[in-house]
Every structure is written in C-alpha cells, then in structure tokens.
Amino acid sequence: MNLNGKVCIITGSASGIGKAIAERYVADGAKVAIADLRLDAAKATAEELTKNGKGEAIGVEMNVTDEAQVNAAVQQVVDHWGGVDVLVSNAGIQIVHKLENFPYDDWKKLLSIHLDGAFLTSKAVLPHMYKAGSGSVILMGSVHSKEASPLKSAYVTAKHGLLGLARVIAKEGAEHGVRANVICPGFVKTPLVEKQIPEQAKDLGITEEEVINDIMLGGTVDKEFTTVEDVAEIAHVFAAFPTNALTGQSMIVSHGWFME
Ligand code: NAD
Fold first, then answer.
1. What is the residue extent of each domain of the chain?
2. Ligand 1 within 6 A of 121 CB?
3. Residues in the chain with pLDDT < 50?
4. Which helix (H) or strand (E) holds 168?
5. What is the pLDDT of residue 204?
6. For residue 144, which atom of ligand 1 is closest to its CA?
7. Are 228 and 188 in contact (CB under 8 A)?
8. Contact at 8 Å (CB) between 90 and 181?
9. What confidence tens digit (pLDDT) does each residue in 54-76 have?
10. What gap in Å lies between CA 16 and CA 231, rounded to an integer?
11. Nearest-5° angle of CA 42, CA 56, CA 43?
12. What separation in Å is there between the alpha carbon of 243 and the centre of ligand 1?
C-alpha cells in the first residue's frame, strides 16, 4: 500500500493535522496540493515538504466555501498533474458558545466551512476520479462525529453530518471505483485546540488545567493527546487501501476516548 505518484489534494493543510497528512503522503512519494485559505502559508509548506520528502507538493489558494475558487484550484491541480486520486477534506474551524448565546453568523460560518467545504471539494474532484475509475475521498470528522460536548453545537452538528455525506459518496462512487471514509480524531494539540482551552475555561468557569485533564483528556485510557502523526497514519491507510472493501467507514483515533 503506497501513494507513489498519486495526486492528492488536502484542504487546510498549511498547518496542523492537514500539514502532517501532507508530510506523510509526500514522504511516501505522493504529489500533494496544499490547498489553504492562505496562499503564502500553503506555498511555504509545499516548499518545505518538497525539500524533505520523496514526492512533491505545490501550494494552491482555496477558500473551501467559495465554489468558483474550489473549482479553479482543482482544475489547477488537474492541469499540473493530470488528475486527482485522493481528496482529504480537512479544513475546519472551531467556535464554542452555549447554544443560547451562539451567534447565528458563527453557526453558519462553521457549518459552511465543514459541510459546504466537504461538499464543494468532493463535487469538484469526483468527475476526475470517475473518469479515472478510482479514487479516495477522506473527510475529516472527529470524535464529535459520534459524541456530543457542551458548547459545541455547530461543530458536533457539522461533524455528524460528514458521516452522512461520506456514506452517500461511498454508495454513489462505488461503481466508479471511488471510496469515501471519515477520520474521527480525539483532541490533537493544534492551533484549533490551543485556542479553545482558555475559551472553554472562561465559558465553563474552570481552570485551563481542568479543561485539559477533565474535559479534553478525561475520557481517554491514558490521559494522552492524539498526535498529528497518529491522524496522518489513518489518512494514509484510507488513501492507499487498494480495494473498495474499505468504504463508507469512520475510524476513531482518540486514545480510547470514544469506543465503538
Ligand atoms: P488548524 O487550525 O491547525 O488548521 C486548519 C487549517 O484550515 C488552517 O491551515 C486554516 O488556514 C485552514 N482553513 C480554515 N478555514 C478554511 C477555509 N475556509 N478554506 C480553506 N482552508 C481553511 O486545525 P486542525 O486542528 O489541524 O484541524 C484540521 C481538521 O481536523 C478540522 O476539520 C478539525 O475540525 C479536525 N479535527 C481537529 C481535532 C483537534 O483536536 N485538533 C480533533 C478532531 C478533528
């Protein structure tokens, strides 16, 4: 199972989990488009990965909620490398508030990045995968695709929704050799999570240490954060798996926080 020469688009990969997935793919010989809001950061990441990996990377500008920009960026990748084999729809944000205080604009913004982003990027790559008769779509879910937490109504709603989208892509894509799966990580220390620690402490009236030990890691088997490398390994399996046997699934990587 390897990704040698495979063309992969990873959204939100200028930093955090997406960057680690890109690094894992490039180390395995893949051609990876670092698709991010911030073109400078995407290009810098691509340059760094190309220097260190077996494969290569390019940076492309993509706001996943902008249909024209998504289509243009996917076309740019197809023009450059001839097709798309793997999509990792990973771009995401977190906004935490109690439901009664949740600003409607924040609700719409979060749902749009997670759900419209996954829809638009999948819609843009599928015709290329169907033409090739193969492909792997990977959506970045979360333990919050399976479990709820206070303050996270928009995030939990969006992450649950991604399971449904992946299952439909799996059913529609099967006859074209296209698979779709969801990765469900527990807490990973990235900028997205660092930002939540003081916010949750304030909203819940507890210390930052209590947020980490009780809320974020309280349910794990060993009080450990999941790492970006752990998530990248699962993303590698979903991308490189050789047959349609592995489709319509979700894999939880969370130090046992959620078991099923
Ligand atoms: P991060 O903040 O480190 O990285 C997110 C990236 O997405 C950034 O590079 C940002 O520029 C990009 N981005 C944001 N909005 C975008 C948009 N509209 N278009 C294109 N790019 C955009 O976050 P992360 O922790 O690496 O999260 C990545 C994904 O993993 C998210 O979907 C998140 O929900 C999910 N996740 C994270 C954790 C965690 O604990 N960190 C756990 C489970 C799931």
1. 7-186+227-253
2. no
3. none
4. helix 153-173
5. 87
6. 43
7. yes
8. no
9. 999 999 999 999 999 999 999 99
10. 11
11. 15
12. 28
